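> call design_seq(struct)
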């Protein structure tokens, strides 16, 4: 299993490429912006199947989904149904940085993902999701904007709820193994043990 991180767009959103060589599967997680960069990096992998997975539907995580899907012949994106309304909303924009996305492919609920457990992480949005990959050799969590190194996601945006976010982190992330690497939607990676001991938002 190969993981590549691509910080893209005005907010340096992390787009992740997860490649399963034995299955020739490529998972593109949060194609946020800079579609040409994502497409070029994706084409470096010898895949027969490519899928787009979304941790949530905020515009700074989906802006390039249409162009990436078209270039790589991906018919749909996959995300939690609780975020379908945001994904399809013309008001999902952050001008002047991100206008509403155009030509987005249809959204569907997650199908099973190879070597991955999909974890519900509501709080930043209602449909926030994490992807816990484990192929027996490498194990990591892609957590979207639920948690960052030493911080947590915002809850003052549409679909956010602080109490729900804290509950998601404490019950569904901090219960994972100490050494597990966490890759957030912005910024660098962290580990469960570090966040449990040092994240000031989680000491309540």
């Amino acid at each position: 299993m190969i993981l590549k991180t691509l910080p893209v767009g005005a907010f340096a959103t992390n787009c992740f490429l997860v490649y399963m060589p034995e299955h020739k599967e490529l998972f593109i997680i949060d194609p946020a912006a800079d579609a040409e960069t994502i497409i070029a990096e994706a084409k470096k992998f010898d895949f027969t199947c490519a899928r787009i997975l979304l941790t949530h539907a905020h515009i700074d995580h989906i802006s390039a989904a249409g162009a990436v899907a078209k270039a790589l012949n991906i018919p749909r994106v996959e995300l939690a149904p609780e975020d379908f309304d945001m994904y399809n909303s013309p008001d999902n924009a952050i001008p002047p940085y991100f206008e509403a996305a155009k030509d987005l492919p249809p959204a569907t609920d997650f199908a099973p993902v190879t070597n991955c457990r999909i974890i519900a992480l509501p709080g930043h949005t209602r449909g926030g999701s994490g992807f816990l990959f484990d192929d027996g050799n490498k194990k990591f969590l892609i957590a979207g904007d639920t948690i960052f190194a030493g911080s947590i996601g915002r809850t003052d945006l549409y679909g956010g709820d602080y109490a729900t976010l804290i509950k998601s982190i404490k019950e569904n992330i901090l219960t994972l193994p100490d050494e597990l690497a966490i890759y957030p939607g912005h910024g660098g990676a962290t580990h469960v043990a570090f966040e449990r001991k040092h994240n000031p938002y989680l000491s309540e």
